[in-house]
Amino acid sequence: MNKLELKHKEIINFCIANSDNSIVEKYSRYFKVGYDGYGIDSKILESQKVKWLDSWKNEMTISDYLNLGDLLIATGKLEEASFATLFIASKKDEFSIDTFDKVGKWLEKGIQNWANTDVLCMVVLSEFIYNDIIQPKGFINWTKSESKWKRRAVPVTFFEAIKKGYKPEPIIAVIEILMEDKEEDVQKGLGTLLREIWKNQPEIAEEFLLKWKDKCGRKIIHYATEKMNKEGKARFKKAKK
Fold this sequence. Notes:
This protein is mostly helical.
């Protein structure tokens, strides 16, 4: 076994030793396609992450963590994907376009639930926007991915950017490509993003929603108008044919 394979085995052994079926049962209800995880208490997982990062700080490069991430992501296990995300997040000061492309492949080759997708967006992918490594248009190819999780990652990453004050105009131009996406997980991400835009710049969000209300998935409208009053929501009902 090479260095990374040994570390992967150590992580798997930790996950097995700290598995808890009651946690699996508790969280299974939030996953339509099933909860594929060991069931590890979040505090235990976070504590172990800190220990490993400290222990490995002099031997693991960003390239090592990306390659270890490939091994972890490939299993499809929620906690292994969580470790992959948290490890690479520790190297955010070294992020590059190459890092962006390699992390993006995780959404096609193993990540298979909304939880891992959204955490990856929050703690990793949003950093590329904050630090001007990638502009919103850099996500256009992602909107065409066969992976619904990679497509969902577009609005969820943009949601994090909007929360930090990023201008919505370049973001709107990219998500327009996704507005007729049939996957509910993508629609929910889009709706949540548009709701966040609406909170600060309602005129932009409402103009966009009026343009798409008769064509887009209803989950988008449901989530986007969630905080509006009854009269506001009524404006975005689908027109009767």
